[in-house]
Design goal:
There is one protein chain. About 30% of the residues lie in helices and about 35% in strands. With about 200 residues, it is of the alpha+beta class. The protein folds into two domains: about 50 residues; about 140 residues, Protein Transport Mog1p, Chain A. The strands form two sheets. The protein has a seven-stranded antiparallel beta sheet, with helices on both faces. β6 and β7 form a beta hairpin. The protein is elongated and about 105 Å long. It starts with a helix and ends with a strand.
């Protein structure tokens, strides 16, 4: 008789333990978490917040716009030189990315490379608002060069295989002409940058 009670006691104990485990996991699922997925959930939340980071569209009166993260300061540094349509400095901390549009006698990016791109190597070909462009780099900088209808479009920034390279990729991929395809005939006043805030979804 005592052996039967002993077996019954063990069975009851297993049932109670099973019920406690089931109750624990049920309450965790209701809360939207589980012990095994909490770390993965935090990683997903982190990247979701990163994707929703605020970005800004910058419109230049010389006839183009581009998108960058809103923590970058954009300053007009156009020199007092009639060959320049615009020159913009995008700064964050102690680093800088430069965007410029100016008249040029070069016909193609390779001409610019031969005269002004000493020490740079070809990375690949990209498109800048539909214009064929080339990217060149060395250990310290990454340069995107496009030439169209006598105008040189240049984007130059640090080559860090990280945030600055990502910023240049974003600028180049979102670069758009707002008026004429080449932006010719537009003048650049001193305050030539406007900002529009948007949220990436």
């Amino acid at each position: 008789m005592s052996k039967k009670w002993w077996i019954t006691g063990i069975l009851v104990l297993f049932v109670l333990i099973g019920a406690a485990i089931a109750f624990y996991f049920t309450t965790q699922v209701k809360k939207g978490t589980s012990p095994t997925s909490s770390k993965a959930s935090n990683i997903v939340d982190f990247f979701k917040k990163d994707e929703e980071a605020l970005v800004s569209t910058y419109k230049d009166e010389s006839g183009f716009s581009f998108t960058a993260t809103s923590d970058v300061r954009v300053e007009d540094v156009t020199p007092n030189d009639p060959s320049y349509y615009t020159k913009l400095s995008l700064k964050k901390d102690d680093k800088e990315l430069v965007i410029l549009a100016k008249d040029t006698s070069y016909i193609k990016a390779e001409d610019w490379l031969a005269k002004e791109g000493q020490g740079l190597s070809l990375v690949g070909a990209v498109s800048l608002a539909g214009i064929s462009a080339k990217q060149y780099s060395n250990d310290t900088k990454l340069v995107t060069v496009a030439i169209d209808k006598g105008i040189l479009y240049l984007v130059e920034g640090p080559n860090d295989n990280a945030s600055w390279e990502d910023l240049q990729t974003k600028v180049v991929s979102t670069f758009r002409f707002d008026s004429s395809p080449s932006g010719q005939g537009t003048s650049v006043p001193a305050d030539n940058v406007t900002y529009e805030e948007e949220v990436v979804e």
